[in-house]
Design goal:
- The protein is built from 19 helices and 21 strands.
- By secondary structure, it is α+β, with helices and mostly antiparallel strands.
- The strands form five sheets. The protein has a six-stranded mixed beta sheet with strand order 12-11-10-13-14-15, sandwiched between helices.
- It is globular, with a radius of gyration of 27 Å.
Length: 747
């Protein structure tokens, strides 16, 4: 391509030596000849791009001579001699850009984020059935193409954002190609085309750039032509793929390779359906600090609600099922820069108070529990309990489970041991306890897993505990359950499962529950299993989330530093008139449970962060209560808002320990970045749950507050949250959707 394209004018050319101070992605694109600078010797990454400039960068990044299929029409506003004429002709010939209805190209118009995303996603052969713009934007976020990009739908894109889009897309192509080569002779499968109404999908890469291991049907909409509520005149309104079939496989434009489907006869699957189950809870209300000064609850380090929200927003362009969102799990999905423990305790408790963002007459207090980091790994006895029933057939279920196990295998020590127990219509030990040093043997067992049959979960759970007990060690003993949550043979009611798991937890074996897939997803049952099994619950919707759970946050997933952790806040009525706990509705405890060591509560993993928000109505001097049998007089001053008490047990302990911390009646004039971000996440949770206390919160305020609190975001999860909130804002304003709608899932 670069041999065909005329040299860019002096205004866009500059010596490479001038850019040594810029970020690595920009330097890489400059070195490849993709990004050029200006005559003042600067890249000016803060500037916006015109349609002509973006076309030039896109062509240099992706197109080759072989893909030039036609010359561009004679756009009257792109005359002979225009510096970008050859680039525009090349991109038009490749089918990735088009002109406007009036026959013009408008080379000097600026490019919006969603327009740039659609062109790049088309280049990755992303599904042509995705709605525009939310479908393409959701896919880009899900695949990591929008990592570090802060532009949102409708925003004019900057050169810096284009650098990240291009760089991420090029890396995605290389990653898919490398992964396809590595798995060419492995057991990766593809779901039948009829499940998605179109092309096949694999657990590795798909024929159009994988969604990080997750495969989802689109939410419908046009093939990019639907611009309802979006700016018109996109650079391209086509979704043309660039795929040619070679020997049963696919070679994509840009060199990306997708393997041919593996034989499907080994899998027994009876079709696709939607039987997802969730349990909603009534929202916490304000309590009178004079008559009800105590607020007691179990911590919740689960994160499943957030991953499920992401699945709906990015995968379908829909709101999640009403009642399915637990606000505290949205907040606790993210890590925060809290004070670390320094006195030998397993965690540190801290607090911060500011004016409440959604009600300026109220205060908001953030209570943070920060777990200590892992300093020394204990020997680990892991038993994977894997659902291999027929409902686990599809690519985002068992194949993603297998990929997740391979990731974890690389993070464990050689002397750690792994067992695999499977259950379907029957149950078996697929791998007896094996040291990680025998990696090939473990990989062979993982590769052999196949889906088919019913779901005899009760027997599977019992066998997993027997296996864990058989190989019990001094150290970390844990069962990791991987399932879509369906139990249709034997004991299957939530109450029965709760009783079974409660009995088993006394063996000193922890339980981590990982949910996979869609359609048959049983959120309520999986949370019950984790809550009663001394463990946590996460939902893995993508390969990227699997990496977060098994690699980036592996210590948090596998190593418990405190169990039965309870929090009790005692509010000072001299400073607080009313209060309410934001979220934790299904974690509320009776006040007397706080001192009862027999009462089960949540667990905290190494390095984990648990955050609780209290919305507070300040005292105004009118507090009073008519009490017959006790005094309602306020004692003490108003220098403290509350006292936070925390009880916990050591992982192998039976007796709880107590920590107390007074919270000063001190309101910060400026929220910390973490406090802003956590508050933004709480606002979104309230919007999704149609909270009566939402106040002034809306999607604009969520995005504004989150943008102020993104801060250092090395793994991109906070930026991802911005894009999720943006998609929800778009579908609310332009698709007539509401969080309270009875969501009709597209499968």
């Amino acid at each position: 391509m670069k041999k065909r394209i005329i040299a860019v004018t002096a205004a866009l050319a500059v010596s490479a030596a001038a850019f040594t101070a810029f970020a690595s992605p920009a330097e890489e694109l400059r070195d490849k000849g993709i990004l050029s600078g200006y005559e003042d010797g600067q890249l000016h990454l803060e500037r916006t791009l015109t349609r002509a400039e973006f076309t030039k960068i896109f062509c240099d990044a992706f197109l080759t001579d072989d893909e030039i299929k036609a010359d561009a029409p004679d756009f009257p506003d792109v005359p002979d001699g225009h510096w970008a004429k050859d680039y525009i002709a090349a991109a038009y010939g490749a089918g990735v850009i088009s002109g406007f209805d009036d026959g013009t190209f408008r080379p000097d118009d600026t490019v919006t984020y969603e327009q740039a995303v659609k062109i790049i996603m088309s280049r990755l052969n992303y599904s042509g059935s995705a709605a525009y713009p939310e479908g393409y934007v959701g896919g880009a976020v899900d695949m990591g193409i929008s990592d570090n990009v802060h532009a949102l739908i409708g925003d004019t894109i900057t050169r810096e954002d284009v650098v990240y889009l291009i760089d991420n897309a090029l890396k995605k192509i290389e990653d898919d190609k490398r992964e396809a080569e590595e798995e060419a002779n492995s057991d990766s499968i593809q779901s039948p085309a009829y499940l998605w109404g179109g092309g096949s999908s694999s657990s590795g890469s798909s024929s159009g750039g994988s969604t990080g291991g997750s495969v989802r049907p689109s939410s419908g909409g046009s093939s990019g032509g639907d611009k309802s509520g979006a700016s018109s005149g996109a650079i391209s309104d086509s979704s043309v793929g660039f795929e040619s079939s070679v020997g049963g496989s696919s070679i994509l434009a840009g060199g990306s390779y997708a393997p041919a489907p593996a034989p499907e006869a080994e899998y027994d699957y009876n079709g696709y359906f939607n039987t997802e189950e969730y349990t909603s809870e009534d929202e916490n209300v304000f309590k009178n600090a004079l008559t009800s000064p105590l607020s007691t609850f179990s911590i919740d380090a689960d994160t499943a609600s957030y991953s499920n929200l992401r699945r709906f927003a990015l995968g379908y362009g829909l709101f999640p099922k009403y009642g399915s969102i637990r606000t505290e799990e949205l907040i606790n999905y993210f890590t925060y820069d809290n004070p670390r423990p320094t006195d030998g305790k397993p965690f540190e408790v801290s607090a911060e108070t500011a004016v409440c963002p959604w009600n300026s007459e109220h205060l908001l207090t953030k209570i943070a529990v920060q777990g200590d980091e892992l300093t020394e790994k204990q020997p680990t006895n892991l038993v994977f309990l894997i659902d291999v029933s027929g409902s686990m057939y599809t690519a985002e279920k068992l194949p993603l489970v297998k990929k997740s196990l391979r990731m974890l295998l690389d993070e464990l020590d050689e002397n750690d041991t792994i067992s695999i127990v499977t259950y379907a219509s029957g149950t078996r030990v697929a791998l007896d306890s094996t040291p990680v040093s025998e990696k090939d043997k473990i990989l062979e067992a993982i590769a052999s897993l196949r889906a088919g049959g019913g779901t005899y979960g009760e027997v599977g759970i019992n066998l997993a505990y027997l296996q864990a007990e058989k190989h019990l060690i001094e150290g970390n003993n844990r069962i990791i359950l991987c399932t879509d949550g369906d139990f249709n043979i034997g004991m299957s009611s939530t109450g029965d499962l709760e009783k079974l798991i409660s009995e088993k937890r006394e063996k000193g074996i922890f339980l981590t529950v990982l949910g996979f897939g869609m359609g048959n997803y049983k959120d309520n049952r999986m949370e019950t299993l984790a809550d009663n099994g001394n463990g946590t619950y996460a939902y893995i919707d993508t390969e990227r989330e699997a990496r977060k759970v098994f690699v980036d946050e592996m210590p948090k997933t596998l190593y418990t530093i405190a169990k039965d952790v309870k929090i009790q806040a005692e509010f000072n009525p001299a400073a607080v008139k009313e209060y309410r706990l934001v979220g934790y509705e299904n974690r509320i405890l009776n006040n007397e449970d706080f001192d009862n060591d027999k009462k089960d509560a949540g667990e905290l993993g190494c390095g984990a962060t648990v955050t609780a928000l209290y919305e507070i109505v300040p005292s105004d001097g009118t507090e009073a209560a008519e009490l017959k049998y006790r005094s309602s007089e306020i004692t003490g001053g108003a220098d403290e808002l509350m006292t936070v008490k925390l009880r916990y047990k050591d992982p192998d302990g039976d007796e709880s320990k107590l920590i107390e911390m007074p919270v000063a009646n001190s309101v910060t004039s400026e929220m910390s970045g973490d406090f802003k971000f956590a508050s933004a996440v709480a606002e979104l949770g309230m919007l999704l749950n149609d909270s009566e206390f939402v106040g002034t919160a809306d999607y604009d305020s969520v995005i504004s507050l989150a943008r102020e609190g993104v801060g250092d975001d090395p793994l991109g999860f906070r930026t991802e949250f911005l894009h999720i909130a943006d998609i929800l804002r778009f579908i609310s304003e332009n698709r007539g959707m509401s969080p309270t709608d009875d969501t009709d899932l597209p499968y």
